[in-house]
Amino acid sequence: MEIVNLGKTNSIFNQYIAEIRDENIQKDSMRFRRNCERMGEIFAYEISKRLDYVDQEITTPLGNSNINLLFEQPVLTTILRAGLPVHQGFLNYFDKAENAFVSAYRKHHKDGSFDIELEYLASPDLNDKTIILSDPMLASGSSIVVTYKALLEKGNPKKIHIAILIASRQGLEYVKRFLPENTTIWVGAIDEELTAQSYIVPGLGDAGDLAYGPKE
Ligand SMILES: O=P(O)(O)OC[C@H]1O[C@H](OP(=O)(O)OP(=O)(O)O)[C@H](O)[C@@H]1O
Ligand SMILES: O=c1cc[nH]c(=O)[nH]1
Ligand SMILES: [Mg+2]
Questions:
Q1: Parallel, antiparallel, or unpaired: how do β-strands 130-138 and 159-168 relate?
Q2: Domain-by-domain residue ranges, the chain?
């Protein structure tokens, strides 16, 4: 499995990572959502370079022009709710793509542990498709693994790209144990620490709350 860290290259991308982390700037929820969306757009452009292309002829008013265009559309997949702004960024670029949505939330037990409960899955057939699964945060890694297993009910994808804005080192190690070799994980940053409640340190806090407000 390959891991590509976009934050390792100096680019404007890191300005958006800095802004979603910044405790003052992140209070502006519209800017937080838009920054997530902008990074979704950059991930989309970078991932597009790895997809398959086919030569096509375009007819202009004055003649013909040949150009390599996408051979097939990926299936854009995200996890509700924090994944929505990143997903919109992907959709801005892959505007003809099919889409899949999954709900996953942490169900806490009395001893402080939690399981990921998945209640909703809306997906096209995934057999032999390329799927791009986006989520701003990969902390314990449980949401991604539970989501991947649920998606398998819809078919066996030929290639999986996972796009994460901020991942924990520990979560990436966990995910590697469950996802197949044909997976590429794209990250914006990798943080070294997780709290006892599986929050990423330094991370950014709760991405869903920052984008959409607190939930009960
Ligand atoms: O790697 P994990 O430990 O599973 O944590 C990562 C998950 O946490 C966040 O969602 P959250 O559970 O906060 O839900 P929300 O989007 O509704 O806020 C994030 O968007 C991931 O889905
Ligand atoms: O650090 C974390 C972990 C899970 N979900 C978040 O939004 N942030
Ligand atoms: Mg979630």
A1: parallel
A2: 2-53+71-210
Token pair belonging to 4: 């590509």
In this structure, the strands spanning 98-108 and 75-80 are parallel
Residue 153, C-beta contacts closer than 8 angstroms, at least 6 positions apart: 121
**Position of tokens 């057939």?**
125
The answer to which of 37-46, 107-116, 158-167 has the lowest mean pLDDT is 107-116
For residue 139 and ligand 1, the question of a CB distance below 6 A is answered with yes
- Any ligand 1 atom below 6 A from CB of 85: no
Backbone angles phi, psi at 205, to 5 degrees: 105, -145
Q: What would the pLDDT profile of 63-94 be if each residue is shown by its tens digit?
A: 999 999 999 999 999 999 999 999 999 999 99
pLDDT digits (tens, 9 = 90+) for 21-31: 999 999 999 99
Return the structure tokens found at 83: 């994944």
Q: 5 CA to middle of ligand 3, Å?
A: 22
ipTM score? 0.97
Instruction: Output the CA–CA distances (angstroms, integers) from residue 189 to 6, 13, 29, 202, in the order listed.
Output: 7, 11, 21, 11
Q: Ligand 1 atom closest to Cα of 139?
A: 1
Minimum-distance ligand 1 atom for the alpha carbon of 106 = 12
Instruction: Check if 206 has its Cβ closer than 6 Å to any atom of ligand 1.
Output: yes
Q: Which fold has domain 2-53+71-210?
A: Rossmann fold (3.40.50)
Q: How far is the CA of 65 from the centre of ligand 1 (A)?
A: 45
Pairing, β 63-70 against β 53-60:
antiparallel
